[in-house]
Design brief:
By secondary structure, the protein is mainly α. Helix content is 81%, strand content 0%.
Length: 73
Amino acid sequence: MVLYNLRHTFAARSVLSGTEVTIFQKILGHSEIGMAMRYVKIAEHYKVEAVVKFEKYRSVKMQEAEQKMGMVQ
């Protein structure tokens, strides 16, 4: 199971770093592109999650700045 986890982590990070799907498909030895595409979906989840976190952070910082400037009661 540990080897699978390492392989999974490698694939997901490869996609997140911008590696072409067909390249890491060959590295992992997948004969079908569909197997490699599973990791693209996982990577998309991480990207969406990162944007949501950023937006929450931005919202809090905007509120703090407005309070400092006396714009919000």
